[in-house]
Design a protein that fits this description.
The structure is a homodimer.
Chain A (H helix, E strand, L loop, with lengths): L1 E9 L17 H13 L6 E2 L8 E11 L8 H6 L6 E8 L12 E9 L13 E2 L6 H9 L3 E4 L14 E11 L4 E8 L6 H13 L7 H8 L14 E7 L2 H7 L3
Parallel strand pairs in A: 3-10, 5-6
Antiparallel strand pairs in A: 1-3, 1-4, 2-3, 5-9, 5-10, 7-8, 8-9
Helix pairs in contact in A: 3-4
């Protein structure tokens, strides 16, 4: 028996989000639990590091559970991928210390919000990038994105419907990068994120790109702690949970097998 | 009434290819014809520059037809996109000389074959890139790709089932490029392509990457004119018709509206 956690990627297009819900047949957690339970030969609960919303994607989600059969860690991804649907892929497995908690012990997360900024849609990105056909002022968005870094109260960028113990989060990196294929990527690394925070940041930066807000307005919007001052909640499909960071030294102590 | 041609992109995943077929309900040609016919208010045939196979994608396909209603060229993409399914997008429309032929007048085509070369699949590329988990020798593939350039008889790279007037084609560019995300792109520009030629070239280069063939073997395979000497036909989903090149000066003479 081992305390294990997985790195999992998924295309969220066809799911009602990560978390198992009553009356919802399609969640990612449920699909992964089904496979873990099959290997354990009994119903097994798994715990995700992040509860991604309906339609949101992940490249580096993490999921923790008790593995009760003897499979070498290196064999787990291939074994699980053989049972998972083709829009969910297990990339790696680690063994962890007994007191490790995949959500509480996460030090930081990286999200990417993708905007496709050409006149007509890109069929290959239609499920992974939000199509905005306005000619966005990218230089202004680059400047505006920089105002999010630091430890701040992000109440203005929190949707209703979730109670957080604190609305103060530290953003380590926030940057906008134009890509050759017509995309604009918003990449944000932070200690944590409030409910729909990343999508509200994206919507606010798109408003800057449209000229509805000046880059300097970001400071006063954050200071206002008023959700109505920030921009719209950008669509889920543009958002990807890219990576979650842990203290590798703590993990390494236990992973000797 | 005007002779018009469109630049069209599509995700070929859910189609039986470009061309209308008896007993097949889902072809891209049929979907576009339906829209053109609706605007013309009578059944209208369209002609594609390339008959892409089932599962093959296009960024720059071209389709020609007689437009019988008065719509400004610049308004056509938006008008058509409003009626097309979301996996087919019209990117541009041109008016052409009366004797223009979208297939015969194409000077060259560019195809891209995408290979995803990491251990586990990438969920976001699963429909657009062929997953090869062998650790491919990219430097050998780069060298091997260069042997395809020039005017040659490519009989060894032609699948049965299509009668071409000539098996001699000129390849202007053939290159392999590794990408940061784990993909390897094969980009080939040529005067024309034989049936499944691009996918057989891709399969042969993958065999070079696996060490089954040496880069220098490409010359003798081409010289053999023997299909059995070349590699496997790589899967359709990795292939995208990227661009088709026309003589813009000839087109420009007529496009004055």
């Amino acid at each position: 028996m081992a305390n294990v956690y997985l790195k999992i990627s998924y295309d969220g297009s066809n799911y009602s989000g990560w978390q198992v819900q009553a009356n919802t047949s399609q969640t990612i957690q449920e699909k992964v639990e089904k496979v873990v339970s099959k290997f354990n030969n009994r119903p097994t609960r798994i715990y995700g590091a992040s509860r991604t919303d309906a339609g949101v994607h992940a490249f580096g989600q993490r999921a923790q559970f008790q593995l009760e059969v003897d499979i070498p860690l290196a064999k787990i991804p291939q074994a699980f991928n053989g049972e998972l649907p083709d829009d969910i892929v297990c990339l790696k497995a680690w063994q962890t210390p007994p007191d490790f908690h995949v959500r509480h012990d996460a030090l930081a997360k990286k999200y990417i919000y993708r905007i496709y900024n050409r006149t007509y849609a890109n069929v290959f990105l239609r499920k992974y990038s939000y199509h905005c056909y306005y000619d966005l002022k990218v230089a202004d968005m680059v400047k505006a994105a920089s105002y999010f870094t630091g430890e701040k109260d992000f109440s203005a960028f929190q949707a209703q419907g979730c109670s957080n113990s604190t609305t103060v989060k530290e953003i380590y990196q926030s940057r906008i990068t134009p890509k050759d294929n017509g995309e604009i990527w918003l990449e944000v690394v932070g200690s944590g994120f409030l409910y729909k925070m990343m999508r509200i940041i994206a919507g606010t930066l798109i408003n800057v790109g449209k000229g509805k807000l000046a880059p300097e307005d970001i400071s006063s919007i954050i200071a206002s702690q008023d959700r109505t001052k920030a921009g719209f909640t950008a669509p889920a499909k543009g958002l990807t949970l890219q990576e979650i960071y842990y203290d590798q030294e703590i993990l390494a102590k236990e992973v000797k097998k």
